Amino acid sequence: MTFNTGAELGGSSARRRGGLVAGGVGVAGLGGLAILLLNLFTGGDIGGLLGLGGDPYAGSSGSGTVIEDCETGADANRDDECRLVFGQRVLDEYWADHVQGYRAPQLVVVDGSTSTACGTASEQTGPFYCPPEETIYVDPDFFALLRTQFDASAGPLAQLYVLAHEYGHHIQQITGVFDANPPNGTGPESNGVRTELQADCLAGAWVADAADEVDANGTPYLQPPTEAQVRDALDAAAAVGDDHIQAQSGYVNPESWTHGSSDQRRRWFAAGYQNGLSACDTFSIPGSSL
Fold first, then answer.
1. How distant, in Å, are the alpha carbons of 158, 194, 197, 240, 241 from that of 265?
2. Transmembrane stretches, by residue range (predicted)?
3. Phi and psi of 69, rounded to 5°?
4. What is the span of the domain harbouring residue 191?
């Protein structure tokens, strides 16, 4: 999606944090890809594999520094980090309109890597939501990884889809979905898969309506998405499907799935985009309908 160049942010709570060295494992190498695959398969804490175990905040730069260099939509169009910061504003305004008593998550833009209560955050672990902190961690370098190793273009809407998906997990946290449906277990009909597919659907619903949110001057933050941009987001969803990721290792095992297949992720994003939030109940339907 394209931001209107004249849209103004008017302050941001997003922070930049990082500075840890991830044990010499390079994102361009097979080691980085293997670590990312393991994290996507298990959803676990892989800090130990990166040589970053111990105190979850040891070596981090505290709460980080407030990002102050993203002021207009033009900044968001030219810079991945500013795109995330502006995306945070639009997502917060959207969800404040749809969830009573909404409280915003913290967004941390990771510079290199940093420790969290949920493990290490870096481009190698991929973006994630940490429920104990109610914080989303994204390293913009992850988008380069999508392009080079997962055959996804990772254009502007694909990047915002990634952020909106993690916001979906925050909505699940604050509305009690996690408590009612613990995202444990694996397999194509598991709560873990249902949780991820619902987050994809919530992201799709947001994308459909995001252009309705306006800044303090009444200027829409975003232009409506083009068909090409929506395809880009669908490609990003498919790129992180369990079957697509496992196929790169040579063996597809549906019983180990935690996020859903590429086809499922496309379909649930599209369900939200086409039919809104009411289409996003992934927990009350039979597994054959997922």
1. 13, 10, 6, 8, 7
2. 20-41
3. -105, 25
4. 15-289
Q: What is the pLDDT of residue 20?
A: 55
Structural domains in the chain (count)? 1
Q: Residue 48 has which token pair?
A: 């130990």
All residue ranges of the chain with pLDDT < 50 are 21-62
Question: For residue 147, is it within any domain?
Answer: yes
Provide the CB-side half-sphere exposure for 213 (13 A, CA): 23
Strand partners, 15: 66, 108
* pTM for this prediction: 0.85
Answer whether residue 1 is part of any domain: no
Tell me: the pLDDT tens digits for 215-261? 999 999 999 999 999 988 888 888 778 888 888 888 888 898 989 99
Residue 228 included in any domain:
yes
Within-domain flag for 5: no
d(CA 75, CA 80): 9
